[in-house]
Amino acid sequence: MSDRPVRTLFSGNRTGLGYKVVFTVTIVVFTAAFVLPFLWLVLGAMKPTVELARVPVTVLPETWQPGNYTEAWQLMDLGKYFLNTVLVVAGAWVVQILFDVPAAYALSKLRPVFGNGVLVAMLITLMLPPSTLLVPMYLTITDVPILGVNLVNNPAAIWLPAAANAFNIYLLKRFFDQIPSELLDAARMDGAGAVTVLWRVVLPMARPILAVVSILAVVAAWKDFIWPLLVFSDPALQTLSVALQRFAPDTPINLLLAGLVLAALPMIAVFLVFQRHILAGLTAGSVKG
Amino acid sequence: MSASTLLRPAGAPAPDATRRPGRAPGRTRRRIVENLTAYGFLCAALVCFALFSWYPIVRGVLLAFQQVNFITDPEWVGFDNFERLFADPLFWDAWRNTLLFTGLALVFGFFVPFLIAVLLNELRHAKGYFRLVVYLPVMLPPVVAALLWKWFYDPGPGLFNSLLRIVGIDGPHWLDDSTTSLLSLVLVATWSNLGSATLIYLAALQTIPGELYEAAELDGANVVQRLRHVTIPQTRFVLLVLLLLQIVATMQVFTEPYIMTGGGPDDSTVTVLLLLYRYAFVYNDFGTASALSTLLLVVLSVFSFAYLRITRRADA
What we know:
The complex is a heterodimer of chains A (289) and B (316). With 289 residues, chain A is mostly helical. Chain A has helices at residues 17-34, 36-44, 49-52, 68-75, 78-110, 115-124, 134-142, 156-163, 166-177, 181-189, 194-205, 207-223, 226-231, 240-247, 253-286. The N and C termini of chain A lie close together (11 Å). Chain B has 316 residues and is an all-alpha fold. Chain B has 14 helices and 2 strands; from the N terminus they run H-H-E-E-H-H-H-H-H-H-H-H-H-H-H-H. Chain B has a two-stranded antiparallel ribbon with strand order 1-2. Classes of the chains: A mainly alpha (289), B mainly alpha (316).
């Protein structure tokens, strides 16, 4: 994405009154549509419930209650659900990297017999909308074949299916394909085994794609709702999203809003820090770049 | 478990290293060792795919023709599950609502991001700010967005009706009224997701060579003609891909109706996935739920298949 001015649809200059009007209107509309709702939420969370129920509404709280945030944290025991979520997200991330990187490397560079068949079988799953697999997936985790275990209320029920991610395999393999095989052969001549080559030669080069896969994995796991809702029937193990919707009907509105702010913060922080990577991953991933 | 599967191949090729190359038995052996190494790298992912992707796909289709009760063995029931579905009036409502949702979501979620992207591509200032704020809602967990908008939609002190009251309009009842409920859900979903489509379009617009616009202008093409004959053809691939992806994604809508309306009022927001959830996890009728998900799969496969054809052709 270069920001160098190139000729675009409109030919007019970018200093005239017309441009200034369009630019100002755009800024105002964007701020109103995408920033105001967040401000309204943060402010609303600091109002007393009676003030929130009043018509007409107040813009700034008449009675400031910043303590709503700590009260919400304690009332809903959010610390516990944060930890649950971190455990689910971190595990999903680790498993995806640990399982999918070697697999993509093998398909790209080691090229075993039936390797292409395996790749096609994996990529075909991309065509299947995940929600159409909910029922058989749920029945599978209640009694995993071969292993014979019940993964309900076990975070592994989120971690292991997360590794069956064909999009990761596709992104990683496409990256590994671009690494010249001569480089790997040279390392092998020096007596390096397959693991050493992957660890010392391939992975250091693959940092950009590992960042993209990692961010996609973390964001998807943090945002997921329906699968954690099914997996964790035990309320004590639920993730933030699942817990918040369970608390929503009978929590005072101001405390619920404070909870929403707290649940949104980590992802907003991740976005502000990794904005460049996230936006790069968006275009690298969805469309042929 | 994962550590050992990763480490095992490390030692495997070692004995082979002492063998002299070129001899036929050695080469065969090396091929075997290489394949074992490769499958050692693959096995963890393969097990996950087998257990949590390939097996459930097959099982889902089989379940559609079975009756499961967890006490006795599954029983084959032919098309009974489908007949039960077709007899359920909610089945038809759910499809109508879902198609309406998808259609409305396309109007807002497909055309609006493209227009926004075209506009942003013309602006020369605060580009970073626009990109940042348009993507902020995408980062929100959908549950948070749904609960937040549920509060905005409150007909009394909610944000929207408060704003409408300023300009003297008595706002609608949004989620509580069966004529506006579905549209209300479309608006949340659009607000939450339009950032990604916008930025993908923007990236595509930036790849259009400026000379094309210059040439068109020299030929006397006005803005609308340039949009029609330069911008749209140059981004046709991205437009088509996102159209298909959006149809597939919006037809699976669940979180918003589940949290904001529970399917009401008057079943006006019961979507296919919400009905599927009810059959499976409220009525514990996994057979009928599977029949429904098989139908959804068949419908969505058409779009997935089109998507695959288009992206494949572009790759080749």
